[in-house]
What does this fold into?
Amino acid sequence: MLISCIQTNPQNDVKENVKNIISQIKIAAKDGSEIIVLPEMFSYMGDEKQRKQTKSKINEDIFKELQEVSKENKIILVAGSHSEEIAGNPEKVFNTCVTYNKSGEIISIYRKLHLFNLKDTDGKPLYCESNSYEYGSMAEDYTLVTSEGNWKALNIICYDLRFPENIRNQKNFPFDIIFVPAAFTWQTGKEHWEILLRARAIENQCYVVACNQTGFFYNNQKRNYGNSMVIDPWGQIVARMDEEVGILSAQISKDKILESRAKLPAIVDRKIK
It folds into this structure.
């Protein structure tokens, strides 16, 4: 089964960012991708103080556009993340990943749990997501119905990658695919991105599909790492981009999951006290 990640470099023009991502979705769908994954915050990368101005309600505006795209192109769309309006809270938004099936129906809504709050050595905030985002809750697994059968999937977002216990604490663990939409920074990405992704694939013996933003933004003051990749259950990188904008596609197979778990039955051998 063919799966694709769309690696983008969004700026502060929401309409232009959404237009570009929809164009890329249609190209990937035409090329045969059955599942398409977008990066975190694909619709806006600018001044965080303006983040709340980009918000939408579920089933409205940008969320609605993506729903229609998934239906029209008959694809499963793991729609990265976009700012979701919070009723009664005009100051903050949720960082929300919605997944749509081939009929455009919502099959998963995940609101980012772990917010990235970066500080310097003196404790001064450098970049704090909690200034504009509200904390979400634990992700819930869901089922993807594909041409290769059903896949049990889980969505996490970017910084969540550093907290593996939340994956294994799921009542329906283990999973077939973990999706990781991200806006992983260049500074931490070059040191930790590949290591963390491969570790999550190896320890959970599943595919990890990580779609990252890339390039400079916010008047060239900030930079994301790119390097979107698909990793198999043995921890091998099946496909990887560098820091260019574009589409990354790879074939995935449930047989690889079965093979990995038969070869090394770590999940069966797991003991929890």
About this structure: The helical segments are 14-30, 61-73, 165-168, 186-204, 254-263, 266-269. The chain has a mean pLDDT of 95. The CA atoms of residues 18 and 43 lie 6 Å apart.
